[in-house]
Amino acid sequence: MSLDRRTFIESSAALSAIATLGAPHTSAAEPKSTVNFALVGLGSLSTNQIAPALQKTERAKLVGIVTGTPAKEKIWQDKYGIEQKNIYNYDNFDKLVDNDDIDVVYIVLPNSMHKEFTIRGAAAGKHVLCEKPMANSSADCQAMIDACHQHKRKLAVGYRCQFEPHHLHCRELARSQAFGALKAIEAGFGFKIGDPNQWRLKANMAGGGALMDVGIYALQACRFLTGEEPVAITAQETKTDPQKFAQVDETITWTMTTPSGVNCYCSTSYAFSGINRFNAYAENGQFGLNPAYSYEGIQGSSSKGPIKLPQIDQFATEMDDFAKCILEDHPSRVSGEEGLRDLLAIEAIYQSIRSGQRVNVKRIA
Amino acid sequence: MSLDRRTFIESSAALSAIATLGAPHTSAAEPKSTVNFALVGLGSLSTNQIAPALQKTERAKLVGIVTGTPAKEKIWQDKYGIEQKNIYNYDNFDKLVDNDDIDVVYIVLPNSMHKEFTIRGAAAGKHVLCEKPMANSSADCQAMIDACHQHKRKLAVGYRCQFEPHHLHCRELARSQAFGALKAIEAGFGFKIGDPNQWRLKANMAGGGALMDVGIYALQACRFLTGEEPVAITAQETKTDPQKFAQVDETITWTMTTPSGVNCYCSTSYAFSGINRFNAYAENGQFGLNPAYSYEGIQGSSSKGPIKLPQIDQFATEMDDFAKCILEDHPSRVSGEEGLRDLLAIEAIYQSIRSGQRVNVKRIA
Fold this sequence. Notes:
The structure is a homodimer of 365-residue chains. Helix content of chain A is 35%, strand content 21%. In chain A, the strands form 2 sheets. Chain A has a 9-stranded mixed β-sheet with strand order 14-13-12-11-7-10-9-8-15. Chain A folds into 2 domains: 34-160 and 317-334, NAD(P)-binding Rossmann-like Domain (Rossmann fold), CATH 3.40.50.720; 165-311 and 343-360, Dihydrodipicolinate Reductase, domain 2 (2-Layer Sandwich), CATH 3.30.360.10. In chain A, α5 (114-123) runs parallel beside α6 (138-150) and α7 (165-175) crosses α9. The first copy, chain A, is globular, with a radius of gyration of 21 Å. Chain A has 365 residues and is an alpha/beta fold. Chain A is built from 11 helices and 15 strands. Chains A and B meet through β7, β8, β9, β10 and β11 of A and β7, β8, β9, β10 and β11 of B.
């Protein structure tokens, strides 16, 4: 995308007007209707979820890849018709600045690399969609926000659940007080982790264990349902396999209060599978999802019965939404600030574990 | 029961031998096969649960009442054939010492009265079954234990769930490591409390709010399943109706670790109904009950499918068990120490709420 085209597209009021008037699609001034993505990091999430999702998207289009594994280039090129000129590695990543074919970099790297590649992506003129957790510290999140702001690029975090119909319905039940005011939420997400050599178990790559990886979904659920930021947190950690979990947390439980008095209690673990849910308790009823955070098969129920809504491809919807934000020039609902707020809460959880104290969650300055 | 008969019955080895030999039931030395109960406090629990349960018991027999409401005397006398000589009030309660017809006093009074009537009951030569929570403080629990010890009377706490087949099955799943070692437990019990003038909302009567009344079931579940005492506790309280809950807690969540590394997270509330369950997570599977703590209709499931066991009258079984303990002269599994340990954990929860610190749970000296 040239700077001129960018300027044009960012004047979105005009753009919308043209679109509504049905400007001919072959016109030189044709409003861009798709946004071109490059996937940065071709691990299992990109391979099994995101690339397939990009075959279903309406506005987001897979055109590029960034990989540190040359053997993957040909495979992806053949499978997805990636042009040679849109293939990068981590060294020549910054050359993206010269490639107008790519609008967005979707960072699907180990957590510790999110900050660097978000900042380098923004500096190369690309909008950035970054997987969760946004970064390994709130300071890193802030640096990423600042970089995207400085380069006038949009930044979003891969909180796919915020686009999922059952989650959205539960948020509506909470916010509309369909069962009265919310009083408590229980939320947990964990799984029994396999390969002891994976990056998720290395502190310098993952920044933490179960909490950073999947506990964040339980935290997100509480924040998403209430629309509130946690005030104070207490937390405890247990470690039953100190060798496997030498560097990162195994099982954490925590409590969390909100300004309106919602009392949340949450868990996350790498030591067992089977918890993947939230339950929200209001004064006159309850509702929840179980499983809540899976890629598919979300199921819900409330005091009034089952919650049955369409199953969607959460990644496709998340990417189409970010494409729309870019095309229409408005901020993403899963903004960098949203990612930063989660890291502030996560830091409070770790701090409470270390200090044995109830910790007040820091606010965005 | 005369002192002589007591002495005889307490020589239970001999008793069992005689029973096995089929001693004639009309013999003067006939072993006592039933134990006579007096209910102390005729509120809704006694009226709706315990007295009806005493119509189903095999060894426990309702023969006496203690009430502060004279109008209730005739009603109970007519309904249950209580003899006039077995009716007491709180003033003449100590005269029970002269009544050999009554073996056990079952204390079903507001929490704050448990200590006094347990101690007075033991001093009057009666065994004591005391409703939960055992008392309003661990010091009171200890005083009750000491009094029963001093008077050589048995003491048990009304932890009916410990006799419930689904609970027992779940304990077996936990202890046998049917799904591997336990890693985490979620447990919660709450209900939306009605009448704002009831004793449960008065600190001097109840000693606390939801935690003392129903949170104790969630705590019990964690202790019962693991067979371990909590090591450290963190807790938070929220209060959304400071008027109704001026004196006692409304909603509390807490975390609790055990020596083997089980990480528990729990909740209790008087602000909403609908949470009444536990879920236990082990390395290779899970199991739980929902509803878990109701008087009837307990339902369970595990990774292997539904847990379907007979529904029993928990109060009847609890009372028959205490009767058996007395007849066979062995301690109750729901001993005073069991009640004391819960109070030690509850005090740690309240202390953590007050101090904002992780609190180590005190051990029985």
